[in-house]
Amino acid sequence: MYSKCGSILDACKVFDEMEEPNLISCNAMIAGYTRHGLDEDALELFHEMRQERMIPNGFTFVGVLTACANLAAQEQGKHIHADIVKSGFALDLFVGNALVGMYAKCGSVNDAAFVFDRMLAWDVVSWNSMIAGYADNNFGVDAFQLVPEMLWFGINPNQVTFTSILKACARLQSGEHGKQVHVYIIKMGLETNIFVGSALVDMYSKCNNIENAIKLFEKMPKRDVVSWNAMMGGFCHSKSCEGALELYIDMLWAGIKSNQSTFVNVIALCTGLAAMEQGKYFHCHIIKTGFESDVILGSALVDMYAKCGCIEDAEKVFSKMINRDLILWNAMITGYANHGLVNNVFQLFKQMEHAGVQLNYITFIALLSACGNAGLVDEAFKYLDLMSHTYGIIPGVEHHSCIVDLLGRAGRLNEAHNYIHEKSLQLSAVIWQSLLAACRVYGNIELGEQAAKCILALEPQDGHVTTYVQLSNIYAAAGRWDDVNKMRKMMKDAGLKKKPGFSWIEVKNKVHTFVVGDRSHPQTEEIYAELQ
Predict the structure, then answer these.
(1) pTM of the entire structure?
(2) What whole-number distance in Å separates Cα of residue 226 and Cα of residue 261?
(3) What pLDDT, on the 0 to 100 scale, is given for residue 2?
(4) Spatial separation of the C-alpha atoms in residues 384 and 379, rounded to whole Å
């Protein structure tokens, strides 16, 4: 009673005062723990039951499997699965559903499918658990294929089924599949369901059909924060900063309280568009709504301010964060690296080590990038060695690319070339692009031609434009105009064109984008008049 009424402490007190708790009371306590997010306590109680040689039943196993799913504790889940088999509950419908859900939420879709295929009977929960498992783990096609099977067995999809299927459509960006599912939803009379409606808005948004998303959103009879966030995500996906801002104001007028997801979406949008004024507006509302200490939003704000060129504001946000996770530390150290503040990078790295932060792949990319910006070759190799030998992190393409780029900037092109072969990096187009860029700066035609040849062999056709242009520039600098014309002819014959450059400027909280030679802006005449 106490647990279901939201008072888990009173439930614990009553349970602890019981002289000999029985199976029913233990099951009730495990369910209470999982209901209140105390999953570790639920597992601990289960282990105490086993030590007391209390025999669990189906309800016990459903409870502890739910706890394992919430904690993504797959190993513990497997041990409990073995217990289930020994106890004779492997064929129980509810236990089977819990097993499928546990494995799926732990990312082990094959194990979930193994359990699902061996169940003697399925209900709608069974099918929904398996479909959600496929959808959540990026097996969208498998999720689609289960729906006809579900119907063949006489099980009708419900709102949970459609929410998962629409998520699969969104992740695959399969608008056509999404439309087919939408038609079936209308036939089932579920289009006005708030959960299904939100999923439809999200699906159309991520499938680049913002118009349909807006129409559905406006038709929804009821909207909760999830619905608003789905529409907000749509504007962010279509990079409409103005639309997101207007929607946020409408959201406030509607009396909907923003949550973490609301702000994560809009801050990411402001970061991508370098729209700092809008970002500051949302930052103010983050403070007003009490999310200032949220570490995920703190990381997003640090990243936004750093990428918008205001490293001081990024530092202010970082310094005010009481709890700091690795993502937040990495956002700050990457910001310093991108701004060329090498000493700040090194100092923050020492702070991370002193604080016992578990460094990762991204941390060392920031360190090596900082070394590259400052031309610190020896320090870069020192950090590369520290990364692999002290922290046990295997250097990846990004790290090696930083080294090649650094050697190239220092004019040590032959060393960069030798490094590529020493580390067996010949099959990475990114690495050769770093070398080609250095060859353009230092006019090394021979190595430039070799790098270009490797890129053209490795990359799809879309990547050829930059390579031809870079090589053409090397030839032009050397006065080899016949080769320049040859490059241009090869580009023309292949139907390749260099993408025009563009820039944007923020004026009165609105971002204006300009492409080279573009005259589509409504104030084009005034702009050109001012320039003249």
Answers:
(1) 0.73
(2) 9
(3) 43
(4) 9
